Amino acid sequence: MGKNCNSQNQQSALLVGVSLSTRSTWQAEESLNELSRLAATATLVEGGRVLQTKRRIDPTYYIGKGKAAELKAQAHAVAADMIVFDNDLSPAQMRNLEELTDQRILDRSALILDIFARHARTRTAQIQVELAQLNYLLPRLTRQWTHLSRQAGGGAIRGMGAAGVRGPGETQLETDRRMIRKRIRDLTTKLERIGTQMATSRKGRSDTFKIALVGYTNAGKSTLMRSLSGAQVLVQDQLFATLDSTTRSVDLDQHHNILLTDTVGFIRHLPHHLFASFRATLEEAVEADLLLHVVDLSHPHYALQMETCTQVLLELNLEEKPTLLVYNKIDQVGPGEEEQIAAAHADQKDAIAVAALTGFGLDALKERILELCLANSVVVDLQIPQQEGRLLSQLYAQGQILEQHYHDNEVCLRVRLDRNQVDRWQLQRFEYN
Ligand SMILES: Nc1nc2c(ncn2[C@@H]2O[C@H](COP(=O)(O)OP(=O)(O)OP(=O)(O)O)[C@@H](O)[C@H]2O)c(=O)[nH]1
Ligand SMILES: [Mg+2]
Q1: Is the pLDDT of residue 359 over 90?
Q2: At what angle do helices 221-229 and 362-375 cross, to 10 degrees?
Q3: Does 271 sit in the ligand 1 pocket, CB within 6 Å?
C-alpha cells in the first residue's frame, strides 16, 4: 500500500495515545476512540493506533527517543501520511518528533482546530477559529503552518504570505510572525466588537425566559432544538457540527413561551485557544435563566462526558446556574424500553430522559421546563387604564391572566409574569399589591 492510495484519496493517520498510569488505561483507550472520530471528521482515515503507558513524559520527544523511533517504523509499515497524538505537544516536541520520525506530526489541539476551521460557516465562527489557529500557529511557525494552511483551506494564513511587505533585513519567518501578530490584534478587536453586539442583542430579549442547550459534542443538542422549535439547525453524526449560536422561540403552552439557544458543544481537552476565541459564543449560556445539559446516554462513557461538561461550566462560572439534565438517545439505550428508562430517571429531581430524534419524552420535558419557568414567575395585580389598548394587548401576550375585572376607567388584572418582566411593567408606573 502506497501513500494517499486509498479509494477516496484520503490521508491516513497513525493514532498515538499515552496513558500516564496503568490505572487510567481504559480512559486513554476511550480517548483514542474519540481521537479516531475526530480524525474521521477531519477526513483522515485511521491507519492504526498505538497506546503507550508511561510513568513520565519525555520533555524532548514526549514518548521518549526509543519509542519515537519505533513509531517511525510503525508509521512506515502502515503507510501513514502523518502521526496524530492524542495529547498536546509542545512546539519543540512536535519539531523533534517530526525530525526523528520524518513524518508530519499533529496533536489533539491541531486536529480539533482543523475540524473547527472546516465547519465554520458564519463570519463570527470563522473569525473565532482563525484567531485560535493563529495563536496556536505563532510558536510553531517554522513548520506546522504549511500543514494547517493546507488543511484549513487557507484560513490560518489569510492576509499573510504573498503580501511582500518584508522590512529591511527581516527574514521571511520574522515577516510572517509580524503579520500574524498584527492579524491576531485585528481579529481580537473584531471579536470584542462582536461580543458587545451579542451582549446587546441578548439584553434586547431579556424579558423572556431564556434556556441554553449545553453538553458534549454530538449529544443531540441541535436535534433537541429542532424537535422543540422546528428550527432547521444542522444535525449531523459528526463532532462539532454546530459552531454558532442559534436562538428560537418555543411555545410551552398557550401562555408561555421561552427562548431556546443551541450552541457549540464541549469536548475533553478543548484547546484553550479555542475556548478563549469562542468565549463570546459560550457566553450565550451565561445569560440563560436555565441550562439544559444534554447527555448522550447511549455513549459508553457518558459519565465522563458529563464530568467534562461540568468542568467547562465551572470555567464559565456557571456551576450555580439552574440546570436540568436531559438524558438523550434513550431509544438507543434500550429500543422499546423508553418508558422504563424514563421512569427510572423520573425520581431524579433535576433530570429527565428523552429521545430527541423520535420525540419520546418531549412533552414531559416541556412540562418540566414550564414548572421551572413558573418557579421563575410572580403573580402581580395591575390596574391599567382602559384606553391603553396597546399596553393591554402586550400584557395579554406576555403574561397569563388569572383574573380580570373593570373598575371605573381601569382594567384590574391579576397576572402571572416572568420575574424578568416585572421590572419593565413597574416602569410603566402601574400599581402592584
Ligand atoms: N438514536 C438517536 N439519535 C439521536 C438522538 N438525538 C440525536 N441523535 C443523533 O446524534 C447525532 C448528533 O446529533 P446533533 O443534534 O447534531 O448533536 P449536537 O449535540 O448538536 O452535536 P454538535 O453540534 O456536533 O456538538 C445525529 O446523528 C443525530 O441524529 C436520539 O434521541 N436518538
Ligand atoms: Mg449541534
Answers
A1: yes
A2: 80
A3: no
Ligand 1 in contact with 356 (CB < 6 A)?
A: yes
* 112 Cβ closer than 6 Å to some ligand 1 atom: no
Residue holding cell 429527565?
352
Asked whether 291 and 309 are in contact (CB, 8 A), the reply is no
Confidence of residue 148 (pLDDT cuts 50, 70, 90): very low
Backbone angles phi, psi at 351, to 5 degrees: -140, 155
213 phi/psi in degrees, rounded to 5: -85, 125
Residue 159, pLDDT > 90, answer no
Residue listed under C-alpha cell 473547527? 116
Is the Cβ atom of 245 under 6 angstroms away from ligand 1? no
Ligand 1 near 281 CB (within 6 A): no
Task: Determine the straight-line distance between the first and last CA of the chain, rounded to whole angstroms.
Answer: 81
Indicate whether 153 pLDDT > 70: no
381 CA → ligand 2 middle, Å: 42
273 C-alpha vs ligand 1 centroid, how far in Å? 26
Q: Is the pLDDT of residue 162 over 60?
A: no
The chain-wide mean pLDDT, for the chain, equals 85
Find the 357 Cα to ligand 1 centroid distance in Å.
8
Q: Which ligand is nearest to the CA of 220?
A: 1
Query: Band of the pLDDT at 314, cuts 50, 70, 90?
Result: very high
How far is CA 342 from each of CA 121, 223, 309, 355, 367, rounded to the nearest angstrom?
36, 18, 22, 10, 14
Cα–Cα distance between 311 and 185 in angstroms, integer? 29
Q: Which residues contact 160 (CB under 8 A, 6 or more apart)?
A: 176, 179, 180, 183
How are beta strands 323-328 and 351-353 bridged, if at all? parallel
- What's at 27, amino acid-wise? Q
Q: What is the pLDDT of residues 219-250, one digit of tens each?
A: 999 999 999 998 888 888 889 999 988 899 99
Ligand 1 lined by 237 (C-beta under 6 Å): yes
**Ligand 2 center–CA 241 separation, angstroms:** 5
Q: In the predicted model, is pLDDT for residue 111 greater than 80? A: yes
Residue whose entry in the numeric block shows the C-alpha cell 470563522: 126
